[in-house]
Amino acid sequence: MTSPMFEKVTFIGLGLIGSSMARAMKRGNLAAHIVGSARKEETRSKSLELGFIDSAEADPAKAVENADLVVLCAPLGANAKIAEAMAPGLKKGAIVTDVGSSKMKVIEDVEPHLPEGVHLVPGHPIAGTENSGPEAGFAELFDGRYCLITPADSTDRTAFRKVVSLWKEIGAIVDVMSPKHHDRVLAITSHLPHLIAYTIVGTAADLEGHLEKEDADIEEMVETNEVVRFSGSGFRDFTRIAGSDPVMWRDVFLANKDAVLEMLGRFTEDLVGLQRAIRWNDAEKLEEWFTRTRTIRREVVEQPARSPYVDWQGGHRVGPGSED
Ligand code: NAP
Question: CA nearest 314: which of 220, 213, 180?
């Protein structure tokens, strides 16, 4: 049997992503020892019981002692404090990586705390579910999915290559792009869809209350929950991601504020264009728009081997291709 890629790996944050990565590393025998750290005792003991970590430690500085690799898997808003707390325990030569959905903010929050000789290699797996916590994870989560690595010019090349190899070993396809580019791409492909899903559920619920008041004389309408009762598959499919963790998404929008606001501006312009087309009975515009976008949507779905954004503004591929 070949020796593991890392002697000691520490995961800080043992939820969906951290526990899935730890499970995938166990599957591939990639670490001789995995330490897990989380705030709650319950999370740490559950993770030990599930067997994807070998030991648990509450104190981040103790958790990272002698670790060759540290993986930050807590919500984005926790990174600065975690980095500050763990810094005294980091050994020279250690690699720190992360899985956060926004990259500029991770670099801003983590890098200033790292001691000299510790290498930060930011990453973001484009894989997930709407479930959270240590029990939600599974080893296959990253199989055939993209992981974006977003090094800065100053990133240590050896550490970078090791993180790329790790993601390939746990089943992912690696792409490399700048942190800024990553944040703009993800703002449109992931963050905006989540914002819209959260919005439409809220709007539908508010509207429901409003309609109930308006139609108060119609008894059967008053006593029903129409969003739940009449939600067709379109509403359900479209809003699945509104079931995602509120803390994680609060942090994503605050961390990637500029890019999200920029994309939201572009999106709003297009939406207003369609609003006008409906108001002025512009059937041609509506049909032309829906036909064009249906073709694009089909291409995205029919080509699982390609990420919809890999080549957008020059993303650079380093692994064999797949999807998200
Ligand atoms: P999750 O299932 O909610 O798990 C979060 C974990 O972080 C929990 O173990 C929690 O521990 C721990 N944690 C929270 N605050 C902490 C703190 N201050 N110190 C130490 N541990 C803390 O979250 P997740 O879905 O795995 O997301 C984690 C990261 O992955 C986020 O940065 C997110 O942007 C990124 N990401 C998520 C997805 C996705 O689809 N979910 C996809 C790609 C990337 P306690 O139980 O002790 O609170």
Answer: 180
Which ligand 1 atom is nearest residue 19's CA?
Answer: 26
Strand partners, 11: 36, 71
Distance CA 179, CA 151 (A): 7
Helix axis angle, 103-110 to 79-86, nearest 10°: 30
Angle subtended at Cα 106 by Cα 70 and Cα 129, rounded to the nearest 5 degrees? 75
147: confidence class by pLDDT, cuts 50, 70, 90: very high
Pocket test for ligand 1, best of 52, 73, 86, 142 (most atoms within 8 A of CB): 73
Q: Angle CA(319)–CA(314)–CA(298) in degrees, nearest 5?
A: 75
6-178+305-318 and 183-302 agree in CATH topology: no
Q: In degrees rounded to 5, what are phi and psi of residue 97?
A: -130, 175
The ligand 1 atom at the shortest distance from the C-alpha of residue 129 is 40
Q: Is the CB of 16 under 6 A from ligand 1?
A: yes
CATH topology of domain 183-302: 6-phosphogluconate dehydrogenase C-terminal fold (1.10.3660)
Q: Which of 171, 195, 179 minimizes the C-alpha distance to 264? A: 195
198 CA distance to ligand 1 middle (Å): 19
What is the second-level CATH architecture of the domain 6-178+305-318?
3-Layer(aba) Sandwich (3.40)
Between CA 180 and CA 320 the distance in angstroms is: 24
Every domain of the chain and the residues it spans: 6-178+305-318, 183-302
pLDDT in tens, 70-105: 999 999 999 999 999 999 999 999 999 999 999 999
- Rounded distance from Cα 262 to ligand 1 centre (Å): 26
The CA distance from 22 to 25, in Å, is 5
User: How many whole angstroms from 300 Cα to the centroid of ligand 1?
Assistant: 28
Cα distances (Å, whole numbers) of residue 110 to 6, 82, 143, 218: 22, 8, 28, 57
| 3-class secondary-structure state, position 70 | strand
Bridge partners (DSSP) of residue 108 are none
